[in-house]
């Protein structure tokens, strides 16, 4: 589905066994990649941490733990905002008019699925959701940017410069 997943494994510089995130690969460009089980959504996600060669910072660890432990509190807003974005895309892009229709935000996980979490800084996390829109034009996904414990932005983007793709 996502042709550039291969880049997730490219340019590995080193490895680290991290007490919070497990096995991480340091990738050229100040990124650590791995996988993490995200309990609130009961699934394993790709993980990217923007950090230098020393590994995740204490603030990034805290941000992730708080994000995971308080996720249920912000999940209704995430669902609603993803639903609004999904509906807008289906209505405004002729190529996507045939996408599955959903009636409420509670149904969002029937058309989108979480696949990655990106710890961008000590206080901002990007949770990525895939869709089947990519069959109409390349690697695309929904980004949910959480700053602190507030949903900062939700948007649909082509994944042209993302390392996950």
Walk me through this protein's architecture.
The chain is an alpha+beta fold and 165 residues long. It has one domain (3-158). It is 21% helix and 36% strand. The protein has helices spanning 58-69, 71-92; strands spanning 12-18, 22-27, 31-38, 43-50, 113-119, 124-130, 140-147, 150-158. The chain has an 8-stranded mixed β-sheet with strand order 1-2-3-4-5-6-7-8. Strand 5 (113-119) and strand 6 (124-130) form a beta hairpin.
In terms of topology, how is this protein built?
Blueprint: E1 12-18, E2 22-27, E3 31-38, E4 43-50, H1 58-69, H2 71-92, E5 113-119, E6 124-130, E7 140-147, E8 150-158
Q: What's the total count of β strands?
A: 8
For the largest sheet, list the strands in their spatial order.
1-2-3-4-5-6-7-8
Gap from first CA to last CA: 10 Å
Number of domains: 1
Instruction: Give helix % range.
Output: 10-25%
Could you name the ranges where pLDDT drops below 50 across 5 or more consecutive residues? 1-6, 161-165
Q: How many separate helices? A: 2
Proportion in β-strands: 35-45%
SSE pattern? EEEEHHEEEE
Large-scale geometry: globular
Taking the sheet with the most strands, its summary is: 8 strands, mixed
User: By helix and strand content, what is the structural category?
Assistant: alpha+beta
Alpha carbon gyration radius = 16 Å
User: Would you tell me the overall average pLDDT?
Assistant: 84
């Amino acid at each position: 589905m996502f042709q550039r997943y291969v880049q997730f494994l490219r340019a590995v510089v080193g490895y680290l066994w991290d007490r919070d995130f497990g096995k991480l690969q340091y990738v050229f460009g100040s990124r650590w990649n791995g996988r993490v089980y995200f309990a609130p959504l009961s699934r394993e996600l790709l993980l990217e941490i923007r950090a230098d060669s020393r590994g995740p910072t204490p603030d990034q660890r805290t941000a992730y733990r708080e994000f995971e432990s308080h996720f249920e509190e912000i999940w209704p807003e995430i669902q609603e905002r993803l639903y609004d974005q999904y509906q807008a895309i289906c209505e405004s892009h002729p190529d996507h008019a045939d996408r599955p229709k959903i009636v409420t935000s509670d149904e969002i996980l029937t058309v989108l699925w979480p696949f990655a979490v990106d710890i961008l800084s000590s206080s901002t996390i990007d949770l990525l959701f895939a869709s089947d829109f990519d069959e109409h034009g390349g690697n695309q996904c929904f980004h949910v940017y959480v700053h602190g414990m507030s949903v900062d932005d939700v948007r649909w983007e082509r994944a042209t410069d993302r390392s996950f793709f």
